[in-house]
Structure of Sugar ABC transporter permease:
Amino acid sequence: MDKNNTTITVKDERKQRGIIKWLRSGKGQKTLIIITFMTVPLLLLFVFTYLPFLKMFEFSLYNMKYIGPREYVGFKNYTEILKDKEVLNSLKLSIYYLIGSFVQLAIALYFATMLSFKTKAGSVFKGAIFFPYLVSGIAVGFIFKFFYTRGFVLDTVLTWIGFDLDNLPYWLRDKNINNISLVATSLWRYVGQNMVLFIGAIMSVDKELYESSSLDGANRWHQFRYIILPSIQTIVVLNLILSITGSLSAFEPPFVITQGTRGTATYFLVMHNLAHSNLQKVGKASAMALILFGIIVLVTIGQKVLFNYLFSDANADVSRKTTRMLKKYNKEGR
């Protein structure tokens, strides 16, 4: 018996020495550094992101306020939201912001392409276009609130051009145009941000490609279509995701400028009112947030699939669509 215990003790000591030896080795030190640097960020990510997300899912299953008793209702909050006309109408308003985001990206890409090459006073234009992004969203809201007010800046400028004030619409009161006016404020603010990201991507394209294509007779449009656009597709997808996510969660323009009145209450504003008004329907607002999350995930996957179909991988020189067109052209040529 004593002999067996002695054997086990010797094995344990050898095992401990092996662990200590491994920890002192280069591989062990590298593993320790990786674990040390990963622990704190992962802990912060779990505490401030995943844990609140799980709690929000839990709240969505209850009829509750911030303080007071809770009543378990299962998925009733979700079904009520999907039948609520106010919520569905607010979701339809996202289409305005979604269309606006595509216009915003097109304008940003146009300016980025123009300003990536030698342009007179290019730095001034870049600074002027990017400046609105540095202004607080609340401040932008107040600026455009007075900009659109009857008889103020926009109306004054239009009357200088020759428009009759009586024939101009009420930019914030007319339900046919007030959401377009709000979308324009978002467009004005975020074009600069998209433009800077596009410029960074375009500047990384090899300059020799432009020279080679020029020798082959390619014009600026051909260079944009077959060199620039396929080369920056990663940034295009990133900007699309940011823009679509922002369009689905638009909040500041309607909150500051119109307070969500006259048919301008977006999905995020309705959710805010449910959670923070006197009603304090926290469970229902949590369910709305999770539905919005699901929509954003679906849209992101959809546009990712679409771009994989339209463009080749990042290392290819031409897109898949271009390859198919060339094959079709060669086949017809035979």
About this structure: The radius of gyration is 28 Å.
